[in-house]
Design goal:
This protein is an alpha/beta fold and 191 residues long. The chain has six helices and seven strands; from the N terminus they run E-H-E-H-E-E-H-E-H-E-H-E-H. It has a seven-stranded parallel β-sheet with strand order 4-3-2-1-5-6-7, sandwiched between helices. Helix 1 links the parallel strand 1 and strand 2. The relative contact order is 0.16.
Length: 191
């Protein structure tokens, strides 16, 4: 299975986050999954790539060509695709992937998660989305989404479109056992 991993590009984060990213990559490799990612050499992107490479897993990097400068991109990808823009990058990552894992990250990761969640809520895809909530990093964002439901900005069903765990094996088990038989669009929200 091709799994897209979104995550931080920064190395200036607590080592526990990087360790979780490496664990995710290693477990993906052990389970013969392919990593699809933004091609970064640092942060959680680089950690996941190094982890999967340790298990001889396959890596597909996707990045805009303006990132192709020394030290920015992970050099040991099995495939690398360059795009002109960040939007093209996200689209290619979405099209290449069978599932999505959101690891701790910054504004780019938030944007990627919210876009892939929006597309699922609009029935543009029915692929599993999982959040690796290392050290409770996403607790506030998850509460924010829950508050959106309480205030009627979101439907309860939107919260069912993703799975959350701080355990790498639980995340991958969820993805591997995901059933795509049902439509997730809430047509009542258009009334």
């Amino acid at each position: 299975m091709k799994i897209c991993v979104y995550g931080a590009a920064s190395n200036e984060i607590d080592r526990s986050f990087l360790y979780a990213g490496e664990m995710l990559g290693r477990e993906m490799g052990k389970r013969n999954h392919t990593l699809v990612f933004g091609g970064g050499a640092s942060g959680l992107m680089g950690a996941a790539a190094r982890g999967i490479k340790e298990e001889n897993g396959y890596i597909i990097g996707i990045a805009p060509s303006f990132f192709n400068v020394d030290g920015i991109l992970y050099e040991n990808c099995d495939e690398f695709h360059y795009t002109d823009t960040m939007r093209e990058r996200k689209k290619m990552m979405e099209e290449e992937s069978d599932a999505f894992i959101v690891t701790p990250g910054g504004i780019g990761t938030f944007e990627e998660f919210l876009e892939i969640l929006t597309l699922k809520s609009l029935d543009r895809h029915n692929k599993p989305i999982a959040i690796l909530n290392t050290n409770g990093y996403y607790d506030n964002l998850l509460k924010f989404l829950e508050d959106g439901v309480k205030l009627n900005f979101l439907k309860q069903g939107n919260l069912d479109l993703y799975f959350v765990s701080d355990n790498v094996c639980e995340i991958l088990d969820h993805i591997e056992n995901y059933s795509d038989n049902s439509s997730h669009i809430d047509k009542t929200r258009f009334k």
